[in-house]
Amino acid sequence: MFLHPTLRAAAVLLFLASTTACGGGGSSSAAPSNLQYAIDPAVYIAGAAIAANVPSIGGGAPSSFTAVPALPGGLTLDQTTGTITGTPAAEASTTAHVITAMNASGQTSDTVTVAVIPAVFESLAAGFVAETVHSAPAMTPVKHGKVAVAPAGDDRVFFTEVDTGNVRVIDPTSGLEATPFATIDVLNGGHNGLLGLALAPDFGTSNTPYVYVLACVPGDGMAMTVDRIQVLRYTAAGNVGTNETVMIDDLPVSPPMGINNGGELVFDLAGNLFLSLGDVGVEANAQADSSTSLAGKVLRYDVSTVPAVAAAGNPVPMDPEWCRGIRNTFGMAVHPTAGGLFAVDNGPAADDELNFLQAGKNFEWGGSPPPPETGFKIKNWQTVIVPTGLCWHDGTAWGAAYANNLFLCTYEDHTIERFAMSGDGFVDIDSESTFAAFVVTGDANHPLDICTAPDGSLYVSTFIGIYRITKLP
Question: Which among 64, 96, 117 is the end of a domain?
Answer without folding.
Answer: 117
